[in-house]
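The freezer alarm interrupted the setup, so I double-checked each line after restarting. Inputs confirmed:
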Amino acid sequence: MRPPSRKFLSAQDLACQRGGRLVFRGLNFGLEEGGALLLTGPNGSGKTSLLRMLAGLTPPQQGQILRQGLPISRDPAAHRAKIHFIGHQDALKPALTARANLDFWVEMRGGSTGGAAKALDTFRLGERADWPCRYLSAGERRRLALARLLAAHAELWLLDEPATGLDTRALEDLFAAISAHRRRGGCVVASTHVKLRMPRAARLSLADFAPRGAA
Amino acid sequence: MSAFAALVGRDLALAFRQGGDWANVAAFFALAVILFPFGVGPEPELLARISAGVLWVAALLAALLSLERLFQSDWEDGSLEALVLMPLPLELQVLAKCLAHWLATGLPLTVIAPVLALVLHFDAAGMGALVLGMLLGTPVLSLIGSVGAALTLGARRGGVLLSLLVLPLYIPVLIFGTAAASAASMGFSAQPHLLLLAALLAAALALAPWAAAAALRQAME
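Predicted 3D structure, all chains:
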């Protein structure tokens, strides 16, 4: 087996530009199956931009992203099928019930709604399942967004500030879900400001890749 | 295909649950049409002569009303970002959203148009052509509108910009829709006009989803 294909996800010499300003450059990382990567750095250091790049939403200014040794830009549809992207917005409709919201995202991925019911229970939303989302608290909405991770399967989880608004129990649920996902060979890339408990997780401080001086 | 149905179903559920977008559109249509007898006077001959044009112009404006929200709310709450990453191609997603938009606005407009036509003393002989024309024309309004809605996504005062962008493109629909209804009410054949409307629909079905999807991808970057 060739060395590059052993990494599940890797980035080579990535550079990112937002609004005409270089945010980071020369960024490299590799992630094995079952691996986790924590993105840290001050506001505006490009954590969300990097996650959006890894999802294939924005093309990198320079460099490339490889999944299992192949550039993700070669087959965007195949890449989309392998990822869960939970952005900092929850993507929930206030008028629909928690269950209807989750079922919708599961059906969009071609999954079964049985998985959705289980995911609701895992994040302790079973009692809230038939409430319209507008009555849910911010933390409950976040949990519902995270329930999408469990309701349908995808190898790579891209999480943008997943811990926002979560109470300690919900955080434990999230860590448990991430650990179980990694034990099955799944990968996680998460941006964070708070301490996320992930054993053997690689850390990437985006401030280290900020352009200096004249750049 | 179940993902397509899921998207249509969700947009319809939202349209009917969120205070009834469709009811606003239908009420606007009815009010706009009923204003005309007050404005131009109650003479039946005059009203009958302008009725087809009035109905179509009011339908265009009513359809335009709800267009701004076609992608806006999905964009604001992060759903659009998640939708772009779903396995269903974005072009088909646009088509699904257009179908839901038409079912929630174009179809109700088509259903109440004959009633409003009677208010304007529209000749009953042209009723079939009017309804058929609206059945063919209103989906074109949703499809062309989706391109405008995608292009103006995130623009400040996008609604005004959307009208300026989309209304000129609605002119062919207006011309042939009005011509079909007028021709039939005056005893001529409406067929050529209806065929041209069908051609517009075929072209919009083939082109609009691609254009709107490209604009949405641009808005996501």
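Quick read of the result. Residues 2-220 of chain B form one domain.
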